[in-house]
Amino acid sequence: MENFGYALWLEPAEPKRTELRQLIMTLSEQMSGPLFAPHCTVLAHIEGNLLDIRRRVRELVSGAESFPLMLLHAELRKQWNRCLYLRVGISEELFMLNERAQKLFEKQEEFLPHISVLYGEFPEHEKERLIKDAGFNLPCEIQMNTLSLNNLHSSNVEDWKIIERYSLHMTSY
User: What CATH number does the domain containing 48 carry?
Assistant: First the structure.
């Protein structure tokens, strides 16, 4: 498994957070996969001094607002951390957040916005069966109201730690 260093995750608001957590738990139990929090990775593979990283994250979230994402459809890959995921439509807010994060952390990474629902290496036919049986109610909109800084230096998902959470301001219309 890959070491992802520190990572920035967008986390969904309730009630979708609980719905996604339940889906992840169900799929993990069925396939003996690891449990993890529902999230959309904004940027991973961040290395460096934690105090400096925290300062940059605070700069990133300064003035940032909560925003919706559209979950489009389920996809699968032959990649343990993108084994089975829900593809996220790229909104202007998400694009700008990723772009700002890449500039602040001086990184250039491919950005494939998604919310994983299963980690592991499983046969394609099993993943296709899970998609068919899960009855995903897609497309749907999900509100993202938190950005978290996570320590993903361990190759064991259960050892991943949330360092700090930052609330995104609610947008008023």
Answer: 3.90.1140.10
CA 4 to chain centre: 13
Give domain status of residue 112, yes or no: yes
Residue 129 lies in a domain: yes
pLDDT of 1 above 60? no
Supply the pLDDT for residue 173. 47
> What's the chain's average pLDDT?
93
Contacts of residues 128-136 at CB distance under 8 Å and 24 or more positions apart, as own/partner, are: 128/76, 130/27, 130/30, 130/31, 130/84, 131/74, 131/76, 131/84, 134/23, 134/26, 134/27, 134/74, 136/73, 136/74, 136/86
User: Cα(94)–Cα(113) distance, rounded to whole angstroms?
Assistant: 9
* N-term to C-term CA, the chain: 44
Could you list the residue range(s) of the whole structural domain that residue 93 is in?
5-167
CB atoms within 10 A of CB 67: 18
In a domain, 172, yes or no: no
Q: Quick check: helix, strand or coil at residue 119?
A: coil
Domain count, the chain: 1
pTM of the model: 0.93
Cα 18 to Cα 22: distance, rounded to the nearest angstrom: 6
For residue 84, being part of any structural domain is answered with yes
Q: Which pLDDT score is estimated for 5?
A: 92
